């Protein structure tokens, strides 16, 4: 059995279908917009501009390890906001 056979089919994963994916991206975008400015900036530099932690650290005047901690908090907060929004509409 090769690796492709082990990966579940996207058709069998309802949350990965077209409109569901768009909806999740919208929810993520809305959650990120509600984050504090620093968290938004960190996520933008890391995932949109694909900057290294050291580069981000230099911009913010913090240690690279701190960048990783702040990013973890930002991702966690974004997820919490997304979950809150989903539960509100459930």
Please provide a written account of the structure:
This protein has a domain at 37-90: Arc Repressor Mutant, subunit A (Orthogonal Bundle), CATH 1.10.10. Helices cover 73% and strands 0% of the residues. It has helices at 3-6, 18-33, 37-48, 53-60, 64-89. α3 packs across α5. The model has no long low-confidence stretch (mean pLDDT 83).
Question: Which CATH architecture of the domain at 37-90 would you pick?
Answer: Orthogonal Bundle
Radius of gyration over all CA atoms, rounded: 17 Å
N-to-C terminal Cα separation, in Å?
A: 40 Å
Low-confidence stretches: none
Level of helix content?
over 70%
Work out the helix count: 5
Q: Which sequence of SSEs, written as H and E, runs from N to C? A: HHHHH
Q: Estimate what percentage of residues fall within beta strands.
A: under 5%
Mean pLDDT: 83
Biggest beta sheet summary: none
The name of the CATH topology of the domain at 37-90 is: Arc Repressor Mutant, subunit A
Number of strands: 0
Shape: elongated
Using the coordinates above, name the CATH class of the domain at 37-90. Mainly Alpha
Q: Pairing-aware structural class of the strands and helices? A: mainly alpha
SSE diagram, text form:
Blueprint: H1 3-6, H2 18-33, H3 37-48, H4 53-60, H5 64-89
Helix pairs in contact: 2-5, 3-5, 4-5
């Amino acid at each position: 059995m090769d690796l492709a056979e082990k990966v579940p089919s996207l058709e069998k994963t309802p949350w990965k279908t077209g409109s569901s994916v768009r909806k999740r991206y919208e929810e993520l975008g809305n959650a990120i917009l509600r984050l504090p400015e620093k968290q938004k900036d960190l996520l933008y530099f890391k995932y949109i501009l694909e900057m290294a932690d050291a580069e981000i650290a230099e911009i913010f005047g913090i240690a690279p390890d701190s960048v990783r901690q702040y990013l973890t908090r930002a991702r966690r907060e974004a997820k919490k906001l997304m979950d809150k929004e989903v539960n509100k509409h459930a």
